[in-house]
């Protein structure tokens, strides 16, 4: 979550942006009606959705940045700890083939252990889960913006396509069920 | 011979040799596009949507009457079970006189996002098994499930016990709470509802991320170093590229199937507690009464043995065998070890039943 200061700043920004978007929209509505006719009129009406989505996306970007920062910190801290352990175990750089091979093995084992411990930890999984969630929030806004643009261009949106997929899925199930009943009846008739 | 920086000349020679190998690599290795993963001939005997039922061409005279149906995992494609002529799971079974069918789940797209366990178990799997029963004139099939295919096979055997003669589960995902792997750790903290509601299917990039954090230094660094070191070894290069091509072919997982898998198996642990529902029916592991063989690998870093083994104790089968092998998740099905140890024991177990 964002800090209270960040939240206050974003709320103020959101309010200002939406206030001016609304007001400008209202002020130009009559003129737009005259200037933008036909299909383009739809885009003018939907323009507010795009600016709302963009503003809300900024809020989620703050959360995403926070989680991404924590993710990279976990990776770099673990790298530094592993490197420290390696330096303690192999204080001098080897200069013959056998020792280089052995120190490479030690390096891999140490790094593998440290990073596996990190990836196995609840702290990593928790932050990773929240990082993915914040990315998905951003993806949702992208989807909504894309849907607004598609709708303005009179093209099917993701939601509408999904309705088709859902309907197809349900139809396939019904057909399969009917096929089974028909086959069973056919077999019984054959007997 | 000495030099100013006091480095053993052999080190410099090794370094130059490695560089030469990297430079020459394209002359000795195919690109992944050129690698053909089809090894053992098969016939597509049934297909439904993107799912195909493959019937492998027998190599010797059939020794067992009951056909074996393999339900491959939902992760990557089935080719790992037939990755190399000398490491092929399928070919080994064929050579032992077993009639082998395999369910290839294909590559789902957004149109498949609403497909769940019900569609996979009571739809695709059941239809494939009905086809095999009809074609082979058998009353039952031997069913084997690998990894998440093991989860599907478990649910199938619990819901359709009359069609299954024997059940073999190879590294099945059963008890998510006991799973100590990185995969399980991430799965438990994932907002799967948001993921599926937003993206539709589980995208391949995210699956690939999960694989990337499993042994990242051995798999992401040393493996490639060894590849260049062994670039003149034809067999090594061939095997390496086959596995790499298989690893890189990660299809999406249908959304509803993924949602239920993560929730019911990893997050709420419903399957092992007999509280999972598929197609409106409760999945009771007590319904599994047929002979059961559970194969687990101690070095499995994708599905830990603790996650697979509880199935052995949860079923009602009186004839049940638990085999623990000193290998890994892939080593159990595609290695010299599996050819020498795992497969002969599996075929013998099938023959005795």
Lay out the secondary structure:
The complex is a heterodimer of chains A (191) and B (353).
Chain A: H1 4-35, H2 39-89, H3 97-120, H4 122-152, H5 158-190
Chain B: H1 9-28, E1 42-48, E2 51-56, E3 68-71, H2 89-95, E4 100-104, H3 117-136, E5 141-146, H4 148-159, E6 164-170, H5 182-188, H6 192-199, H7 204-212, H8 216-229, H9 234-248, H10 255-267, E7 276-278, E8 281-283, E9 292-297, H11 305-308, H12 310-314, E10 320-325, H13 336-351
Parallel strand pairs in B: 3-4, 3-5, 5-6, 6-9, 9-10
Antiparallel strand pairs in B: 1-2, 2-4, 7-8
Helix pairs in contact in B: 3-4, 6-10
Keywords for this structure?
heterodimer, A: 191 residues, mainly alpha, 5 helices, 0% strand, B: 353 residues, alpha/beta, Rossmann fold, 8-stranded mixed sheet, 13 helices, globular
What does it look like?
The complex is a heterodimer of chains A (191) and B (353). With 191 residues, chain A is mainly alpha-helical. Chain A has five helices and no strands. Chain B is globular and about 75 Å long. Chain B has one domain: 3-Layer(aba) Sandwich (Rossmann fold), CATH 3.40.50.1820. The chains are: A mainly alpha (191), B alpha/beta (353).
Summarize the structure.
The complex is a heterodimer of chains A (191) and B (353). Chain A is mostly helical and 191 residues long. In chain A, 90% of the residues lie in helices and 0% in strands.
The major sheet of chain A is characterized as: none
As for the number of domains of chain A, it is 2
Share of residues in strands of chain B? 15-25%
**Beta strand count of chain A:** 0
Mean pLDDT score of chain B: 93
- Sketch the topology of chain B as an H/E string, one letter per element: HEEEHEHEHEHHHHHHEEEHHEH
SS content category of chain B: alpha/beta
SS-derived structural category of chain A: mainly alpha
Strand order, biggest sheet of chain B? 1-2-4-3-5-6-9-10
- Give the strand content of chain A: under 5%
Rg calc of chain B: 22 Å
Provide the low-confidence segments of chain B as ranges: none
Helix proportion of residues of chain B, in percent? Answer: 40-55%
Please write the CATH class name of chain B.
Alpha Beta
């Amino acid at each position: 979550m964002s800090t209270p200061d960040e939240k206050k700043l974003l709320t103020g920004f959101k309010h200002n942006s939406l206030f001016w978007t609304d007001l400008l929209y209202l002020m130009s509505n009559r003129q737009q009606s005259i200037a933008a006719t036909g299909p383009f009129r739809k885009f003018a009406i939907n323009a507010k959705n795009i600016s709302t989505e963009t503003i809300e996306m900024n809020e989620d970007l703050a959360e995403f940045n926070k989680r991404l920062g924590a993710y990279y910190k976990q990776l770099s801290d673990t790298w530094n700890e592993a490197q420290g352990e390696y330096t303690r175990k192999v204080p001098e750089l080897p200069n013959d083939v056998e020792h280089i091979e052995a120190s490479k093995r030690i390096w891999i084992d140490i790094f593998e252990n440290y990073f596996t411990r990190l990836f196995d930890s609840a702290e990593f999984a928790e932050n990773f889960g929240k990082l993915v969630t914040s990315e998905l929030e951003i993806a949702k806004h992208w989807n909504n913006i894309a849907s607004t643009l598609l709708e303005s261009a009179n093209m099917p949106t993701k939601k509408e396509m999904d309705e088709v997929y859902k309907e197809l899925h349900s139809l396939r199930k019904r057909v399969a069920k009917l096929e089974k009943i028909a086959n069973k009846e056919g077999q019984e008739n054959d007997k | 011979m000495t030099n100013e920086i006091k480095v053993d000349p052999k080190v410099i020679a090794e370094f130059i040799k490695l560089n030469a190998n990297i430079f020459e690599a394209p002359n000795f290795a195919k690109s992944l596009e050129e690698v053909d993963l089809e090894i053992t001939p098969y016939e597509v005997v049934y297909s439904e949507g993107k799912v195909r039922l493959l019937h492998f061409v027998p190599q010797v005279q059939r020794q067992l009457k009951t056909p074996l149906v393999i339900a491959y995992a939902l992760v990557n494609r089935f080719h790992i079970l037939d990755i190399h002529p000398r490491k092929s799971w399928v070919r080994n079974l064929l050579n032992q006189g077993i009639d082998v069918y395999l369910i290839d789940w294909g590559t789902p797209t957004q149109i498949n996002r609403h497909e769940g366990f019900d569609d996979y178990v009571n739809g695709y799997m059941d239809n494939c098994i009905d086809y095999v029963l009809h074609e082979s004139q058998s009353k039952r099939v031997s069913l084997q499930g690998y990894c998440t295919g093991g989860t599907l096979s478990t649910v199938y055997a619990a819901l359709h016990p009359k069609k299954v003669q024997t059940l073999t589960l190879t590294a099945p995902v059963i008890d998510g709470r006991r799973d100590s792997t990185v995969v399980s750790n991430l799965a438990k903290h994932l907002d799967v509802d948001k993921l599926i509601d937003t993206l539709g299917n589980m995208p391949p990039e995210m699956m690939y991320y999960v694989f990337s954090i499993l042994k990242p230094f051995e798999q992401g660094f040393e493996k490639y170093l060894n590849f260049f070191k062994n670039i003149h070894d034809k067999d090594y290069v061939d095997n390496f590229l086959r596995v790499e091509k298989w690893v890189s072919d990660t299809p999406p997982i249908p959304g509803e199937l993924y949602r239920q898998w993560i929730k019911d198996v990893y997050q709420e642990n419903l399957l092992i507690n007999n509280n999972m529902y598929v197609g409106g029916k409760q999945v009771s592991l007590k319904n599994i009464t047929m002979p059961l063989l559970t194969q687990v690998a101690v070095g499995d870093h994708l599905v830990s043995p603790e996650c697979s083994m509880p199935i052995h104790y949860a079923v009602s089968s009186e004839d049940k065998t638990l085999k623990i092998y000193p290998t890994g998740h892939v080593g159990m099905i595609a290695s010299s070890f599996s050819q020498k140890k795992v497969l002969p024991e599996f075929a013998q177990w099938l023959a005795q039943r």
